[in-house]
Amino acid sequence: MSQSLLTRVQARVDLHTSRKVRGLITGRGTSLFTGHGEDFDDLKAYQPGDRISDIDWKATARSGEPLIRRFTEQRIRHIAIIADTSRSMSATAADGTDKLEAMLLAAGLVCFAARQHADQVGLVAGTADAPETLPMRSSDAHLELLLRTVQRATTAQAGEGDDRWLLERAHRWIRRPSLLLFITDEARPSPDLEADMRLLARRHDLLVLRIRDADPLQPDRLTHSVEDSDADHDLLDYTRRDPAVRRAVQRYREAREQQVTAMLDGLHIAHALTDGADSVVDDMIRLLRAPRRPHGRR
Amino acid sequence: MVMVLWWVTLIILGVGLIAALIALRFRRAHAKRPTIRVANSAYVDSLPAVKRSRRIALMLAATSVLLAATLVLTSALLSGRLATERVEQPSTQSRDIVLCLDVSGSMSAVDADLLMTFNEIVQRFDGERVGLTVFNSRAVTVFPLTHDYLMSRRQLEAGAQLIGGQSSTTAEGDAKATENDRDALLEQLRATSQSTGAGSSLIGDGLVSCSQQFDRSDESRSRFIIFATDNQLAGTPLYQLPEAMEAAKRRGATVYTLAPDSVIGGAELEELRTETERTGGRMWTTGSAQSVDTIVAEIQKSQAAKTGGAKRSYYTDHPAPFWLASLLAMVGVVAVGWRQR
C-alpha cells in the first residue's frame, strides 16, 4: 500500500461528512474534542451531565433555556485506541464491507482529529498470544504506524476475541486519565464484563464503537457459503432460507444487543453501533459529539 | 417373470446413474462456492429452530434422493416391460377325444364308474373337443365332439346317476345334472338296445361308430378314442374288432382302452389289448388306479410328439404396480421439491 492510511482516512472523512460537520473538523480544527479550555467555542443546550459551572447565565436568560459554554480543549489530550484485532474483526460487517475497514476508519478519524491539535494517541490491541501496544505519541509517522499495526494484526489467522484480556490490559497499560475509544463488534463487550468496564470508565473517558456483524444466514446470497471466523458450522441452504430460523436468529441478536446496550447505558458509557465502513464516519462523529460526562468524575 | 426389453431397462438405469454422478459433481462444485466470513454466529448451531430446520432439510434431501431412485427404477422396469411368459402349444385346440362306452348288460356293473372316470378325464383337459357315444347293439351319440364342457360334464353326471344311482362329488353349480338330462339320457340308452336282429353288444360296430364321430378329416388333428368295453361279443357284428380298430387307425385315431377287471373272458381281454396296441394306444383294466393320470399323460405326450413341440411364448405385462409406484414417486418428487424451495 503506497498511500498512507491517514491520507485515505482523511479522504473518506471528507467524502462522508456534511459541510457542517466538515466545518467542525477542519474549520477550527479541534471541535471534535470539546472540553474545558480558555478559547470559547460555542453555546449549546444544557444536558444532564454537563457542569453547572459551565452554564452561561446571561445567554440562558436571553434564550429562556439553559445554555452552556463550550470551550475548545486546549491542553494536550491523551487518547488511546483499544482495538479488538481478533479474527472476528476480519469478518464481514452488516453492510457487506469488512469490519476491519470500519475499524480503521474509526481509528483513523480519531488520529486525524488528534493530529490537528497534536494530541497524543496510543494503542492497545492484539490478543494474549500476540499483544500489540503503542505508547502515546503525536507524530504523523506514529499515527500511521498505529493504523498499520491495527491493519496488520487483524487477520483471519489472528487469535480468538478476548475482550476481558483486552480491557484488563488497557486498564494496566494506560495510567493517565485519557480519552479511550474501544472499537469492537456487536457481541462485545460481553455483559459479564461490567466490572472491568466500570473500572475503565471510572478512570478514563470511555467511548465504545461497536461494529454490527453480517447476517449469518445471508438468505439473499446463496451463491456464497457462510463461514464463521470462530465456529465451524456448515449451514444448509434450506436452513439459511428458513423463515423460522431467520426469526430465531433475529430474536437472539436482539436479546444480545439489549443486554450489551443495557450494560453500557447502565455505566453511562457513550457507545454507538455502526453497520460498517459506509456509515462508520457518521456514527463516529455522532458518538464524539454526544453529550457525555467529563471523564474521571462520577 | 421376464424382462422383454431388458436392454431399455439397462439404458435407463445407466442414464439414471450418470445423472446421479453429474448431480454429485454439481453438489461438490456447489460446496466450493465463494465464502462470506461472518463472526459471532456460534449461537446459530444451538438454536432449536436451526436444529429442526437441519433435520427437515436432511430428511427432505434423503426423501428426494430415495424418490428419484424409485422413479428411475420403476420407470426402467416399466420400460423394460416386466412380464410373465406363458409358453403354449397352439395345437391343444386341435385335439379330439371321443369317449366310447359299451353299455351292454355285461358292462352294466361298471358303467357308472367308467362314466365317472370319463368325467374325471374330461376335467383334466382344457381346449380339447370331447364327444360321448354309447353303444350296445346300436350306437347312440349322447353328444358329439364339442368344447362345451359344462354340457359334457352334466351329461356324464346324469349318466353316472342314471346307471349307478350315484352322484359325483365333483359336480357343482351348473354342472349338476337335472331331471331333463336324465330323461333324455334314458331315451338314448333305451335306443342302444333296440334290436336290429343282429344281436347285442356289437363291439366292433360300436367302435366304428365312435370313429365316425371324428369330423374335419382334412385338418391335421390329434384324435383319440377312449374305449370302455369288456369285449364280450353277443351277436354278429358288421365289423369284427380288428377291422374296427383298423378303421379307427385309418381315421388317424389312437385308441386307449379301459376294460373292467374281470375273471372271465381272459382271451377276449388279451385280444382287446393286442388290437388296442396296434393303433398305438394302450389298455388298462379299470382296477388300476393310475389309469386316469396315465391316459391324460399319454394323450398330452403323444400330442407333443405329433406337433413337434413347436412352442409359442405369450407375454403378459404387469405394469400396474410399477406404474402406480412411479406415479407416486413423481408426485412425491414434485411435493418434496416444492417443500424444498
UniProtKB/TrEMBL annotation, chain A:
What residues form the membrane-spanning segments? none
Q: Where is the DUF58 domain?
A: 44-255
What organism, scientifically named, is this protein from? Answer: Helcobacillus massiliensis
Q: What is this protein called?
A: Uncharacterized protein (DUF58 family)
UniProtKB/TrEMBL annotation, chain B:
Which Pfam families has this protein been placed in?
Answer: VWA_2
Q: What are the protein's UniProt keywords?
A: Membrane, Transmembrane, Transmembrane helix
**PROSITE patterns, A to Z:** VWFA (PS50234)
Which InterPro entries does the record associate with it? VWF_A, vWFA_dom_sf
UniProt protein name: VWFA domain-containing protein
Q: Which domain of life is it from?
A: Bacteria
Q: Where does the chain cross the membrane?
A: 6-24, 56-78, 320-338
Q: Keyword Transcription: yes or no?
A: no
Indicate the segments forming the VWFA domain, all copies: 96-299
